[in-house]
């Protein structure tokens, strides 16, 4: 046994086998588990002034009994005791259920303290705690723990108190003195005491502050250690690209790079040259110019004697990438080819032979790139666009087409910085957070359903000028459960409305892949002026002539998704518009619409979305791989998260972390978490 804290909870007085089983249901087996079982909130038992209290708030008040209490019995053993209390200048009715025994003790003019839910309209408090006598002010913050079964919060508080009294002296510090001193953090023993038995709001904050930092630091240390071991364990190709040619290529581009693009290019080029394998995420808002950055990286790799591969989720996107890269590389002799399931027979055979011989410099394609017969001559750089659309296995197969090629993931989904540094902690992250010059911000309006006629007039004005429009709907067909406009109904209505003037197309997820491609191609060529669609148009489609988007029942989408949809317009030089048709019922729904009309910045939106929805919802409940923190909150404590990440990075790099005695508990934690091999600790 390492420590008395590792003893089973049954050593405590009052915990028998039955209670131990119930505690085990909460994950509490040892004294240590009990001490570290932290409250999820606190009841504020401080006395409140009734003039400042909101309706249905839980409050504590002290008052004088004003009149004889009345007791009413109903049902078997059930009763309601009502008494009037004078609280300052207010006469308040206090209602207590099943406390008939107090009737004789509530003497007129005696003082009592009650806690419960306040009904502002009826000037009534429904009490769940009653203390005969004045408010003592001790333990103003009562911890509330998650309990289940027969266990009560009260009994859990008692067990934790006993554990503290008997074993508190055995709690060992986990953080080094240098960090405790640097951030003026409470010791672990004090922090636990403050969390369980705070005597003031200040103590409660001190306890929480210590745990937030420690949870983030331990998590980030694990991520940084994994990153380091992976990096050192995977020797990259160390691409010695031709800097002179690369600079000349960039200077011949028909536009200059934004500062954010330059920064991303420098980070990627540094990784290409390093002897370690690149594992980088390139995040950029819709239209921020990620393709140019990718092109520069591919060009650098080719000058170092390697081939590059770009894998995208759909055929139409692959074709658009080929088109835009051919323009970018028009003043070079690079050979670019496209490989999708549509490329068949002799043509496919010819492409595969040229790829094997090294005649093709850059290969762009869908998952066709990872088929068995696709062999590269010398693959050095793998770029995956909208990487979350591919499975881990698909990405792995493409990487194995070369000998440890550098890997760059790209996404146009702005992941909040808070989540990026947590979820992608083992990756390097480059962010392009500014738009190229000349891009006009999309004007966004929020309209109620009864304004649809005006919206359609606005749309027609754009169509008459030769432009095109999208109309997005949340569902394909009518649903009894949801009162939302569906794509088929809207398509029928708009086909009728614009009959003889403009051609309307329909696109949704139930169409076969080739049907979807046909519709999109017709829209790209302006054979269709108005495209009614579900959210399948979300990723990557580029139709610069489309300047108008109408989103039906916009309150049904999250901010990040609305932003992705809006990004389908605004791709040409003309002014573009997005209209959100919505009658939100909730405050959050209204706030979403408001935020959308105020900003075009995907990163600002994604941070706001995170605040409104929480990290679990942002990524979808279980897909997220988000760490579970007991105390820390990634959204509200993100500044601490960044501090902890920087500290973890510095520690992992320093020699003292691996040798000094003060860091031993942190090294032990890394070992237990599986982030380190045994040898690293010796």
Automatic annotation (TrEMBL):
Keyword terms of this UniProt record: ATP-binding, DNA damage, DNA recombination, DNA repair, DNA-binding, Helicase, Hydrolase, Isomerase, Nucleotide-binding
Instruction: Give EC number(s), comma-separated.
Output: 5.6.2.4
Q: Which Pfam families match?
A: DEAD (PF00270), Helicase_C (PF00271), RecG_dom3_C (PF19833), RecG_wedge (PF17191)
Q: What class of enzyme is it?
A: isomerase
Top-level taxon of the source organism: Bacteria
UniProt-listed InterPro entries = ATP-dep_DNA_helicase_RecG, DEAD/DEAH_box_helicase_dom, Helicase_ATP-bd, Helicase_C-like, NA-bd_OB-fold, P-loop_NTPase, RecG/Mfd, RecG_dom3_C
- Family statement: Belongs to the helicase family. RecG subfamily.
According to its UniProt entry, what is the function of this protein?
A: Plays a critical role in recombination and DNA repair. Helps process Holliday junction intermediates to mature products by catalyzing branch migration. Has replication fork regression activity, unwinds stalled or blocked replication forks to make a HJ that can be resolved. Has a DNA unwinding activity characteristic of a DNA helicase with 3'-5' polarity.
Fetch the NCBIfam families from UniProt: PRK10917.1-3, PRK10917.2-2, recG
How is this protein named in the record? ATP-dependent DNA helicase RecG
Source organism of this protein record: Siminovitchia fordii
Report the gene name: recG
């Amino acid at each position: 046994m390492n420590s008395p804290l590792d003893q089973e909870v049954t050593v405590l007085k009052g915990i028998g086998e039955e209670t131990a089983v119930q505690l085990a249901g909460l994950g509490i087996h040892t004294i240590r588990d009990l001490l570290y079982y932290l409250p999820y909130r606190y009841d504020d038992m401080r006395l409140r002034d009734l003039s400042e209290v909101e309706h249905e708030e839980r409050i504590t008040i002290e008052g004088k009994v004003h009149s004889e209490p009345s007791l009413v019995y109903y049902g078997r053993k059930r009763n309601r005791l009502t008494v009037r209390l004078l609280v300052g200048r207010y006469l308040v009715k206090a209602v207590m259920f099943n406390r008939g025994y107090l009737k004789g003790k509530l003497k007129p003019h005696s003082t009592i303290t009650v806690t419960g839910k306040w009904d502002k309209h009826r000037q009534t408090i429904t009490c769940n705690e009653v203390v005969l006598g004045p408010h003592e002010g001790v333990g103003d913050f009562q911890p509330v723990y998650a309990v289940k079964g027969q266990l009560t919060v009260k009994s859990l508080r008692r067990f934790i108190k006993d554990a503290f009294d008997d074993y508190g002296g055995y709690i060992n510090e986990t953080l080094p003195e240098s960090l405790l001193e640097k951030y003026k953090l409470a010791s672990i023993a004090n922090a636990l005491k403050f969390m369980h038995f705070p005597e003031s709001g200040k103590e409660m904050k001190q306890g929480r502050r210590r745990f937030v930092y420690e949870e983030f630091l331990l998590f980030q240390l694990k991520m940084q250690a994994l990153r380091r071991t992976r990096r050192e364990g995977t020797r990259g190709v160390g691409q010695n690209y031709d800097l002179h040619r690369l600079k000349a290529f960039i200077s011949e581009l028909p536009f200059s790079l934004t500062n954010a693009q330059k920064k991303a290019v420098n980070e990627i080029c540094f990784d290409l040259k390093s002897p370690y394998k690149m594992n980088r995420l390139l995040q950029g808002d819709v239209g921020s110019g990620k393709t140019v950055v990718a092109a520069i990286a591919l060009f650098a790799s080719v000058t170092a004697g390697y081939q590059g591969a770009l894998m995208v989720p759909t055929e139409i996107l692959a074709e658009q990438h080929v088109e835009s890269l051919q323009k970018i590389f028009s003043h070079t002799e690079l050979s670019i080819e496209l490989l999708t399931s549509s490329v068949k027979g002799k043509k496919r055979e010819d492409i595969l032979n040229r790829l094997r011989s090294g005649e093709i410099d850059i290969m762009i394609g869908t998952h066709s790139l990872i088929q068995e017969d696709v062999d590269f001559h010398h693959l050095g750089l793998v770029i995956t666009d909208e990487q979350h659309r591919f499975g881990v296995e698909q990405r792995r197969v493409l990487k194995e087409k070369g000998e440890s090629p550098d890997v760059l993931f790209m996404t146009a989904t702005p992941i909040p910085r808070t989540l990026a540094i947590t979820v992608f902690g083992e990756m390097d992250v480059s962010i392009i957070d500014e738009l190229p010059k000349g891009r006009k911000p999309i004007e966004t309006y929020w309209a109620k359903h009864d304004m649809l006629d005006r919206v359609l007039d606005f749309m027609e004005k754009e169509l008459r000028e030769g432009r095109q429009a999208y109309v997005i709907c949340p569902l394909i067909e009518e649903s009894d459960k949801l009162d939302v406009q569906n794509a088929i109904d809207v398509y029928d209505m708009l086909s009728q409305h614009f009959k003889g003037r403009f051609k309307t197309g329909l696109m949704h997820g139930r169409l076969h892949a080739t049907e979807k491609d046909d519709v999109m191609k017709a829209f790209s060529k302006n054979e269709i002026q108005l495209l009614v669609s579900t959210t399948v148009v979300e990723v990557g489609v580029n139709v610069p002539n489309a300047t108008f988007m109408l989103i039906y029942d916009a309150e049904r989408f999250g901010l990040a998704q609305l932003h992705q949809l809006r990004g389908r317009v605004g791709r040409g030089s003309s002014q573009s518009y997005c209209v959100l048709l919505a009658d939100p019922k909730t405050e959050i729904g209204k706030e979403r619409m408001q935020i959308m009309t105020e900003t075009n910045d995907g990163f600002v939106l994604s941070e706001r979305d995170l605040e409104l929805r929480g990290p679990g919802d942002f990524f979808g409940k279980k897909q997220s791989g988000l760490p579970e923190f007991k105390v820390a909150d990634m959204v509200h404590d993100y500044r601490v998260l960044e501090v902890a990440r920087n500290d973890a990075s510095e520690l992992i790099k320093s020699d003292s972390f691996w040798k000094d005695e003060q860091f031993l508990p942190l090294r032990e934690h890394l070992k237990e978490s599986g982030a380190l091999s045994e040898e690293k600790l010796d």
